[in-house]
Design a protein that fits this description.
Helices cover 42% and strands 22% of the residues. The chain has a 6-stranded antiparallel β-sheet. A 5-stranded mixed β-sheet has the order 7-11-8-12-15, with helices on one face. It has a 5-stranded mixed β-sheet with strand order 16-22-21-20-17. It is elongated.
Length: 532
């Protein structure tokens, strides 16, 4: 079973020899013996240290130095410490086109079971060798996960652009906190997915509701959850990104044998990336193939360069032919691999189109929430509707209900929720009227604005409960009615109104604006009357 595959580009100070020294040192520690890096580089047919089997092949020249292009492959095989009948296989492949050039390094971790009766589960991890290579061999700047990144209000727009970028190849792992603490150590998770995914954290003091307004519900995480955002797939509506959510309550243990968020996130990533990365791996078989080709080519050249019999020249021609045949087969295999990758990419694109069409046909945002999120949302809807029917609902709950039911038409800023909560504390007792105004706002009024008819038609929707602008406001009054939406300050003079008393319990003002380019209504305030 292929457990883990990864690929890096390194720029080691000491060249490819530095990588092989690190591999030899790591192998020696693991096997509790000594592995000579010089012999490892030249090639070891079979070396056994206790229960560890070591082998390597390389395209070194006659002078025992690296010949370019240089290929090297290493394999370590050993028994599982606990599970009988299971072997672990670690492979490292190295390719360097020219002396001093970038070193392409691939790492595979596999298991080999003696029979189908070996069914013990595998906790997905990556070899510690990966961390040593990254630490000492200078990975190139494009390597995913070299550093943790933060998601803040200032970086939210750039974060959303990165998510939806068609050229993005690596997943994004987004980590949230709960009560100021992370359930999983972001640095530990970063090291696990290094080279495969970028890790982004939401700082504990971040306004997650504001972040949700900017990047959307599907691309945010709350309450200690970790969200995995896969690269986008082009479809009929643009770019569709699949996501997966990992809730802390589903991972109670953190022991060595326990399934953890770190291992499950890595498993979800490698489930998709293992096969494509393994196709580009420099295997023992690939290096043997190149060694054989080199020997055939050298033998043919020697035979032709010396005076020899016709029979020798005949065999030299046969060697040439065999070399050309091997090269042709290698090129054919590479072409087939490229065609396979193109077909898989086309299949992913088709699947994304299918998902988008399902989403459109369903008539609701089926991918906006995961299963656990849906349960929480539905409970909130049910409880709020029950409270509205009995006349004991809070205006904040009514506002949140409308924001969920009309998420495609409405954005409610955190300032609106805060002002609604303030009115609830003061005993606002006209929530049913508020709910009626809000539902007309996101239904009839939204349709009027979407049809381009303007605010004059809004009076037909609300009557005297709607005002399009306010005259005679002071600078302070304008400031009270100005709210931030996606980095832009908006003066929200439009408002719905109920009551005229100077009382939080009797009066309600809903200040909002129509954002034409988004075809959305944005509510900045839902509470007391704001002074002029």
């Amino acid at each position: 079973m292929l457990v883990y595959a990864n690929r890096f580009e390194f720029e080691p100070e000491e060249g490819v020899e530095q990588l092989i020294k690190i591999i030899a040192s790591w192998t020696g520690r693991k096997a509790r013996g000594y592995v000579d890096p010089a012999k490892l580089m030249r090639g070891i047919n079979s070396l056994t240290i206790k229960d560890f089997s070591i082998s390597s092949w390389s395209t070194v020249g006659a002078d025992k130095q690296a010949a370019f292009p240089f290929l090297f492959s290493f394999r370590l095989v050993h028994q599982d410490e606990i599970i009988k009948g299971r072997q672990w296989i670690t492979e490292v492949g190295v390719h360097q086109s020219e002396d001093g050039g970038v070193v392409d390094c691939s790492i595979l971790l596999k298991t080999d079971e003696v029979s189908a009766k070996v069914i013990a589960p595998i906790k997905v991890t990556r070899p510690k060798l990966v961390a040593e290579l990254v630490e000492k061999c200078r990975p190139t700047n494009g390597t995913p996960g070299l550093f943790l990144k933060n998601l803040t209000e200032e970086s939210a727009d750039a974060f959303l652009q990165e998510i939806e970028k068609p050229s993005r190849k690596s997943p994004i792992v987004l980590i949230s906190s709960k009560d100021g603490e992370f359930f999983t150590d972001p640095e530990v998770l970063r090291r696990q997915v290094l080279g495969l995914a970028q890790v982004v954290i939401i700082p504990p003091n971040a306004d997650t509701f504001r972040l949700e307004e900017i990047v959307g519900r599907r691309f945010i995480a709350f309450a200690g959850a970790t969200r995995l955002i896969f690269p986008g797939r082009p479809n009929v509506n643009g770019v569709y990104c699949e996501t997966a959510i990992f809730m802390p309550d589903n991972f109670p243990g953190k022991g060595r044998e326990d399934v953890t968020i770190e291992s499950e996130v890595l498993a979800a990533i490698t489930h998709r990336s293992n096969i494509p990365l393994s196709r580009r791996h420099v295997s023992l078989e690939a290096v043997r193939f190149e060694v054989l080709r080199s020997k055939l080519s050298h033998a043919a050249a020697q035979a032709k360069s010396t005076e020899s019999s016709d029979e020798i020249k005949y065999f030299a021609d046969l060697l040439d032919e065999a070399d050309r045949e091997l090269l042709a087969k290698g090129n054919e295999l590479e072409t087939l691999n490229q065609q396979l990758e193109e077909m898989e990419a086309e299949a992913r694109k088709s699947q994304a189109t299918i998902e988008a069409l399902k989403h459109k046909i369903s008539g609701h945002q089926s991918h906006e929430y995961e299963e656990d999120d849906l349960g929480e949302v539905f409970y909130g809807i049910r409880n709020t509707l029950t409270a509205l029917k009995s006349g004991c609902a809070k205006v904040e709950d009514a506002l949140r209900l409308v924001s969920i039911l009309y998420a495609d038409r409405l954005v409610v800023l955190e300032t609106a929720f805060s002002s609604a909560a303030e009115s609830d504390k003061a005993g606002f007792n006209h929530t049913t009227k508020a709910y009626d105004l809000l539902t007309r706002l996101v239904s009839s009024y939204w349709q009027v604005m979407a049809d381009g008819l303007g605010d004059q038609q809004a009076k037909n929707v609300f009557g005297s409960s709607f005002t399009a602008n306010e005259a005679g406001m002071s600078n302070e009054g304008k400031k009270r009615r100005t709210f931030s939406y996606r980095g832009h300050e908006i003066l929200m003079e439009r408002h719905l109104k109920h009551g005229v008393k100077d009382s939080l319990a009797e009066t309600l003002r809903v200040h909002f604006d129509w954002v034409a380019k988004d075809r959305k209504i944005v509510i900045g305030h839902c509470g007391k009357h704001l002074d002029f």
